[in-house]
Amino acid sequence: MASEAVAVKIQEGVGVDAVVPAAPETSAQRKILLKSAEGEEFLVDELLARGSKMISNMIDDGCTEGGIPLPNVTAPVLSKVLEYWKHHVGKSETDKDAGEFDRDFVKDTSSSVLFDVIMVANYLDCKPLLDLACQAVADAIRDMNVEQVRGFFGITNDFTPDEEAAVREENRWAFD
């Protein structure tokens, strides 16, 4: 039986033993060091790190010495991704707890963090997380009007009133 994958954040000036893992660790578990854009380091079980196809390929290619730099991933978003992986890596897709976790995961995440998670899931090639985050955004905007969607995404309307009227006329079906 494989132990649960556990992420341990290394704090500057503090040893790895500063955080107690949730599952007992065996000497056979290989640890992978992930480095965020800010230089924060996260020591994770190899199984957990393989939640990303990109990182998995780097592990397979032997590119883990000195850690894996993730220059496009901030520490808060990496923590969020690791939280997701802890609940999904090595588990069945039909796990009932996973569905409940997914609902809470996106419900408790602000839209700006969700946008960052989408970017990072794409960068790390983690399709299940990418699909979950994109679906959450799609669900959030489903019943919004144009103005609400613009507000949700922080888009400024740069059409003149005449241009907007022309677009609405051309696409009348979309505004009914």
From TrEMBL:
Subunit annotation: Part of a SCF (SKP1-cullin-F-box) protein ligase complex.
GO biological process: one example: ubiquitin-dependent protein catabolic process
SUPFAM superfamilies referenced in this protein's UniProt entry, alphabetically: POZ domain, Skp1 dimerisation domain-like
Domain SKP1 component dimerisation: from-to ranges: 127-174
Family named by the database record: Belongs to the SKP1 family.
Functional pathway: Protein modification; protein ubiquitination
The UniProt record lists the keyword ATP-binding: no
Keyword Disulfide bond: no
Organism (species): Dioscorea cayennensis subsp. rotundata (White Guinea yam)
Keywords, in A-Z order: Ubl conjugation pathway
InterPro entries: SKP1 (IPR016897), SKP1-like (IPR001232), SKP1-like_dim_sf (IPR036296), SKP1/BTB/POZ_sf (IPR011333), Skp1_comp_dimer (IPR016072), Skp1_comp_POZ (IPR016073)
SKP1 component POZ domain sequence ranges: 31-89
Protein name: SKP1-like protein
Protein's gene: LOC120258204
Functional summary from the UniProt entry: Involved in ubiquitination and subsequent proteasomal degradation of target proteins. Together with CUL1, RBX1 and a F-box protein, it forms a SCF E3 ubiquitin ligase complex. The functional specificity of this complex depends on the type of F-box protein. In the SCF complex, it serves as an adapter that links the F-box protein to CUL1.
